[in-house]
């Protein structure tokens, strides 16, 4: 009988403690959400801008390789050599453009 009363008392105490702390925790979360959401939106915008910049860089590199003879949808039997040749031509063209006045 004593154990049942102690278990019931422990249950009542734990529920009351949880009931008192939940509104405080929710109030802190609600207050911090307004500040955090602005930073989350800023972070999302930064990630989006970084993805766009990376995509633009990759597309520019691919166009440069295609201009120098690489065909990604073409014959791939000599794949490594095809892209390496295009990269060499691209590097040579960039070096020539950099040395020109």
Short description:
With 101 residues, the chain is mostly helical. It is built from two helices and no strands.
| Biggest sheet features | none
Can you tell me the overall shape? elongated
Structural class: mainly alpha
In sequence order, what are the helices and strands, one letter per element? Answer: HH
The rounded Rg comes to 32 Å
Task: Describe the 3D structure.
The chain has 101 residues and is mainly alpha-helical. It has one domain (2-93). The protein contains two helices and no strands. It has helices at 2-67, 79-99. It starts with a helix and ends with a helix. The mean pLDDT is 82.
Brief descriptors of the model:
mainly alpha; 86% helix; single chain; 101 residues; 0% strand
